Amino acid sequence: MKTNFLVGLSITTLMFAGCSKDEMSSITPRDANSIGFEISTGKTRANVVNIGALQNAVNGFGVFATNGTSSSTFINNKAYIYQGNVWRWSEQDLEWPKEDSGYPVNFYAYYPQSSAKLTASLTANYTVAATPEKQVDLLASNRTGVSVKPASGDVSLSFKHMLSKVDFRVVTGAKVTVEVQSMAVRNVGNTGTFNFAVTEWKTLPNSGNAGYNYMTAQAPKTINKFVGQTAPKNVNGSNGSLMLMPQNLENRGWNKTLAGLVNQSYIEVVYRVYETSTGRDVVGFSDAKDHPNYLDVLSTVTGPLFVKVGYTLPTNWQMGKAYAYIIHIGDGSSGGNLIEENFIDKDGKDTDLPVVDPETGEKIEPPDPIFPDKDIIGFVVSVEEWAEPVVEVPLK
Q1: Closest listed residue to residue 107, CA positions, set 13, 200, 32, 197
Q2: Which of 17, 127, 231, 395 is deepest in the core (most CB within 10 A)?
Q3: What pTM did the predictor assign?
C-alpha cells in the first residue's frame, strides 16, 4: 500500500521578544499532517514583515531543499503559501523521502518568493531595490539535518531579518519650529551574497554610491513640521522604513569635506528653522523675496528657502538590527554641515540664491556647520528587538 507523507512547514518570525497575551495566538492543527504554529504580532511600519504580512503575500515564501548525501536540489524554489486559512504548497503537495537514503533533509527558505537561484554552495546574490517603495523586509530561514520524517509531517522554520532597518527622528530647540523637506542616506553599498547554510551574509559591501530617499524626492514636497520638539519624534517617511544592506560604515563616514561627499557615507537633510512665536527666520527664509540678494540676481524663486546639510554616518549596520538616527536641529547643536552653497526651493530644486544667515546676511560656505558655535557629533547605542529601533544615534 502506497503511503504519502506531505512536507509541512511550521512558521514563526523572529520579530518581537516580550509579547503580551493579546499579542500571541496559536492555531490548532486540523489533523496530524496540518500546520500548527504560534505567532507573535505587534505594531510595525508598512514595509516591515510580521506573520500576518507573510500570510497575505500572494506568492508566500520560497523553499529550497537538498536530501541524502547528494548536494542536488530536492525542492527547487517552490512557493509555500497561506490559502484558505492553512499553509500549503502553491502547486502539488511534496512528499517526504520514503527511503533512508533520502535523509537527512535540509530546508532553506526565504521571503519574498521570487525567481532566485541557489548555487551549489547554498548562496544567493541580492541587490537592494533602487527605489525605497520597492524595498522589502527580506527574510531567511533554514532547518538542516532532518534525519527522519516528523510524526506530524511538519518542521518548524524561524525566519531572520536579513537587512538593516533605518528610520529617523528629530529633536529641536524649545522655542523654534523646524520644517524638514527631505532626508536621505548617501553613498552606501547595496549588494551582497547570502549564505543559506548558516543564514548569514557571506559577503557584504565595503563601499558603494547608492542613495535612498527616506522622504519623497518628488514635488510637491511633503513637509514634516516639528514645533518645540525637545524629545525625539519620528519623521514620517513616505515609503516606510529603509531596508538596507548590512555593512561597515564606521570607516567610511563622511569626513566633512566637499571631496568626501563623492564616496563617503552620510545622511542628507533639507530643512529650515524659524522662531515659533514670532516667525523670525533662523535658518533659511519663509519667503525667497526676503533674501538680501533676491533683486541682485534677478531671482524668480518663490516660497520658502531651505538648506541642504550632511551628517556623517558613524555606525555599522548589522543584519536584523534597526537604527533610528536622531537629528538635532536648532537646539544648540551644529545643525549639520552645509553641502550645497545655494538654498533649496519648496520643490527640492537648487536656486540661484546663496545660503546666508537671515539675521546678518553673512554667507555660509560649504562644508561649514550651520550653527558654527557647536560642532558636536555623538552617539548612544541601545539594543532592543526589531519591534523598536535598536540603535539610537544622536547626530548633533
Answers
A1: 197
A2: 395
A3: 0.82
